[in-house]
Amino acid sequence: MGVIAKTGNKGKGVRSDCSVTFELTDHGGIQLQVESKVAVMYGDMIRKEALEILDFFGVKNANVTIEDSGAISLVIGARLEASIKKLIPSEKNWLPAMLEENRYTTAKDRNRFSRLYLPGNSPSLMINAGIHKPDGIILDLEDAVAPDKKDEARFLVRNALCGIDFYGAERMVRINQGERGIEDLNYIIPYNVNLILLPKCEKPEQLQAVNEQIRKIHQKHKLINPVWIMPIIESSLGVINAYPIASSAENTVALAIGLEDYTADLGTKRTIEGAESFFARSMVVNAARAAGIQPIDSVFSDVGDMEGLRQNVIRSKALGFDGMGCIHPRQIAVIHESFAPAPDEIDRAKKIVFAFHNAQKQGLGVVSLGTKMIDPPVVKRALNTINLALKMNKLAENWRESYEQI
Description:
There is one protein chain. The protein is α/β, with parallel strands linked by helices. It has 3 domains: 4-87, Ribosomal Protein S5, domain 2; 100-339, Phosphoenolpyruvate-binding domains (TIM Barrel, Alpha-Beta Barrel); 343-405, no CATH class. Helices cover 44% and strands 17% of the residues. The chain has an 8-stranded parallel barrel with strand order 5-6-7-8-9-10-11-12. Strands 1-2-4-3 form a 4-stranded mixed sheet, covered by helices on one side.
């Protein structure tokens, strides 16, 4: 018996995945066994792809077993390649074709109301995630992946970036901490990822290390598309250093907070009311605003409590956050609805903008609405509200035309 490597998942409840057992041998050629409930329809295709991959990596003698649970081609490729590279180091990559739909870039100031976390080693959750229309989809290589699965998850996330249509959602990856996270970048930066989430960020030097690696990868592969960064503050030290972190890199677009690890660092318990995290969340909001980037709140972990989520978003918005994470697709609609400008906010913003516009036309130096004076920060906030409402199609077309003429 030779050396054996195993990758993937199998067993009860596993779907859209496969398990690969790869054993190097001294002779006997390639012995390939495919076990699948759909072998009659897809067995030959699975065998053909497997043999192509084995030949691509120069494997001449091996015993290979693929136990399929409805995996698509890019998943099978990722699992088999991960098995091979456990035993045969190689710089070559077996990649699916990059979908044209996945070549888009994203703007620094785009809406980031919602970002949906998906475990980086669970293909069944990735395949149709885009149909739920989150603003961002996070393929997570960190906490959502078991330590012994982290290496193989890189291949799956890489292939997902190439071959899964996320319907315009910002394609995000949360990397690991430290050197493992720096190594993660080699598997994702060349494949048109839009944004990197940097977990447990406590000092600007962590961003600088990530950006230096991104620069090297861009240079090596002659890449030009921007890669944004969202540091996640998850400790008391990170909170104290929030502004230096937020302002340390031009490609930082948002500053997020992770409350589960933060409250654990404090030695306290996270509550729905959030008194224990009020200081930290306020620090993150102020640091982000001072740096000119978006403040993003933590996830709400009770996926069955929609009213609790709604109230949490209302509190989050009142603190100044622009969005939050979510861990289930059913949370997305509530988050979008609650972060979007409310009708009364839109109506007041319209009145402020028109009052300011009319005062300018009349050459007035003082602007008022009713009994209240309108100063530049108030006008700026009103303009932000209207522009956001326009983006979300919450204003009638005739009003849009009137606004654009101002």
